[in-house]
């Protein structure tokens, strides 16, 4: 066929197809369907890419949790926002009604030796190290305990592909009711450590937490996420002086910007620890600053008067420095102290500022951390539990200025061993007030008043009183953890720790007493999950 004839026939056929209404409509419909399929494929590809991105993030978090870090033996795996779809691929996860349940915790057999008896279990009382006037303080102390053993569970579910729900509970046995003792049954209370719910919105970068958790003042390893707090790697259940923390009910909102910059605000349960002075307040002053514990509390305790929550605002940034991820954070703490003074309610403000830095000095070998908190009325957020506030001669609340500092390194000579060296300090400033009585004698009030008598602190037979207000508590500790087994049956590890702690008192009449404590700890822990 001649080429021009062929082209003419082709054009004629094309014209007939275009002119034919059924065939043209069919062709148009097919084209539309193809376009719709392409759109659906593009949407499906975007969903797959998003899921892959989340899986990559989860894998990175899992690798970080498996790698040696300064935070050894966590109760649960370190987690960022963990979709249930990602958690489902992890070993040891239980599936129930579309939820994923991850169990955690450990069984602990531990021992503590103290050179000066505190009558304490595995959690030391740093602010009450005995002076020389204490008879029991001249005796030594040895205790075996299992009470730091822990039970934990994490429940996760995805309301939508980008909205994740979580519930976490963590408990140990360090609670002690009035009936708890070591005489025969050695029965002690199950204690709530953490118990909260959370919601994470991926597309918004928003995170909500409600319930009891570590306070926002506690340092994190990455961003501002739950179960990602950085505690020192010690055995002592009270950690060490200089470590700022609390575990208490709170409502927290966090916003992250591409998992690099984090902002958070938390409203937390208030409580105030007072030092009421060595002398009673003048009879002319009518002051009420606490109340007997009522319904739901142990009747042997008292509660401070509070009507405004503690407020914590925090910012964290993951900074790339020389090819390493360095965690930086800073926070502000607001507190309100409350009393009924001379038939009128009175508020006094307090609070402080803190910071934290976590950095791998030598990646995979040496980790470093440093943190601090300074302010007025922050005592209860330190491990030494120094008082928040005291009173002047008129009964007015006076917050006590305090500075807390902590620094430490953790070395990983081999993958199964962590060796740590930490030092911390908590130091308070004096709040000293005097009142001259009508008879002309001077009465001392406040905290750290140089007119207080420390004469009786020198020894068991020394005469005079021993007020001994604590000026500072300092500690240095050295220890290690050895992971003997890590495998399909969980993890088994053991560790030893030694610490030296010194309690220094303010100068008073008779001098400035010093108490010290040499402590040794041993721990064997099995993590079945």
The rough form would be described as: globular
User: Could you tell me the mean pLDDT?
Assistant: 87
Contiguous low-pLDDT stretches (5 residues minimum) are 1-27, 57-75
Could you name the CATH class? Mainly Beta
Annotation field: number of helices: 3
Residue fraction in strands: over 45%
Largest sheet: 16 strands, antiparallel, barrel
Number of E strands? 25
The span between the termini is 80 Å
Please state the second-level CATH architecture: Beta Barrel
Write the layout of secondary structure elements.
Layout: H1 3-19, H2 21-66, H3 84-87, E1 93-96, E2 99-114, E3 141-145, E4 150-160, E5 163-175, E6 189-201, E7 206-214, E8 247-257, E9 261-268, E10 287-288, E11 290-292, E12 302-304, E13 310-321, E14 324-341, E15 344-362, E16 366-376, E17 389-391, E18 397-399, E19 401-414, E20 417-428, E21 431-436, E22 442-447, E23 470-487, E24 490-505, E25 514-527
Antiparallel strand pairs: 1-2, 2-3, 2-4, 2-25, 4-5, 5-6, 6-7, 7-8, 8-9, 9-13, 10-14, 11-12, 13-14, 14-15, 15-16, 16-19, 17-18, 19-20, 20-23, 21-22, 23-24, 24-25
Description:
The chain has a single domain, classed as Beta Barrel (Porin). 13% of the residues lie in helices and 47% in strands. It has helices at 3-19, 21-66, 84-87; strands spanning 93-96, 99-114, 141-145, 150-160, 163-175, 189-201, 206-214, 247-257, 261-268, 287-288, 290-292, 302-304, 310-321, 324-341, 344-362, 366-376, 389-391, 397-399, 401-414, 417-428, 431-436, 442-447, 470-487, 490-505, 514-527. The strands form four sheets. It has a 16-stranded antiparallel β-barrel. Residues 1-27 and 57-75 have low confidence and may be disordered.
């Amino acid at each position: 066929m001649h080429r021009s004839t062929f082209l003419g026939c082709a054009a004629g056929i094309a014209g007939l197809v275009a002119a034919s209404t059924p065939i043209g409509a069919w062709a148009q419909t097919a084209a539309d369907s193809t376009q719709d399929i392409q759109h659906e494929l593009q949407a499906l590809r975007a969903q797959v890419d998003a899921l892959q991105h989340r899986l990559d993030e989860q894998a990175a978090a899992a690798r970080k949790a498996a790698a040696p870090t300064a935070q050894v033996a966590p109760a649960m795996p370190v987690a960022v926002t963990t979709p249930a779809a990602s958690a489902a691929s992890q070993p040891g996860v239980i599936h129930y009604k579309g939820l994923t349940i991850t169990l955690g915790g450990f069984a602990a057999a531990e021992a503590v030796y103290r050179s000066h008896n505190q009558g304490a279990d595995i959690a030391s009382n740093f602010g009450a190290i005995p002076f020389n006037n204490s008879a029991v303080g001249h005796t030594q102390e040895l205790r075996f305990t299992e009470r730091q053993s822990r039970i934990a569970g994490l429940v996760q579910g995805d309301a939508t592909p980008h909205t994740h729900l979580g519930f976490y509970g963590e408990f140990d046995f360090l609670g002690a009711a009035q009936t708890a003792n070591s005489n025969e049954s050695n029965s002690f209370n199950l204690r709530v450590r953490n118990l909260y719910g959370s919601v994470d919105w991926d597309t918004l970068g928003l995170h909500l937490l409600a319930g009891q958790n570590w306070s926002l003042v506690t340092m994190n390893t990455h961003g501002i996420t739950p179960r990602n707090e950085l505690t020192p790697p010690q055995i002592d259940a009270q950690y060490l002086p200089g470590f700022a923390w609390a575990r208490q009910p709170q409502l927290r909102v966090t916003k992250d910007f591409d998992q690099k910059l984090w902002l958070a605000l938390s409203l937390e349960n208030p409580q105030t620890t007072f030092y009421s002075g060595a002398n009673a307040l003048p009879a002319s002053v009518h002051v009420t600053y606490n109340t007997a514990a009522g319904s739901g509390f142990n009747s042997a305790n008292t509660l401070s008067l509070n009507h405004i929550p503690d407020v914590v605002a925090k910012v964290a940034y993951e900074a790339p420095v020389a090819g390493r991820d360095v965690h930086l954070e800073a926070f502000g703490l607001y507190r309100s102290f409350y009393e009924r003074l001379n038939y009128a309610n009175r508020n006094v403000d307090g609070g402080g500022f803190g910071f934290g830095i976590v950095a791998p000095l030598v990646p995979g070998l040496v980790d470093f951390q440093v943190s601090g908190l300074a302010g007025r009325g922050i005592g209860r957020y330190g491990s030494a539990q120094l008082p928040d506030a005291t009173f002047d001669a008129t009964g007015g609340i006076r917050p006590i200025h305090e500075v807390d500092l902590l620094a430490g390194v953790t070395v990983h000579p081999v993958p199964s061993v962590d060796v740590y060296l930490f030092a911390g300090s908590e130091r308070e400033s004096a709040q000293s007030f005097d009142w001259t009585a009508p008879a002309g004698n001077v009465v001392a009030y406040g905290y750290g008043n140089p007119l207080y008598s420390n004469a009786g602190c020198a020894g068991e037979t020394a005469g005079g009183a021993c007020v001994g207000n604590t000026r500072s508590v300092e500690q240095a500790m050295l220890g290690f953890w050895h992971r003997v087994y890590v495998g399909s049956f969980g993890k088994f590890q053991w560790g030893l720790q030694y610490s030296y702690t010194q309690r220094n008192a303010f100068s008073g009449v008779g001098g400035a007493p010093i108490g010290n404590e040499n402590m040794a700890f041993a721990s064997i822990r099995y993590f079945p999950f």
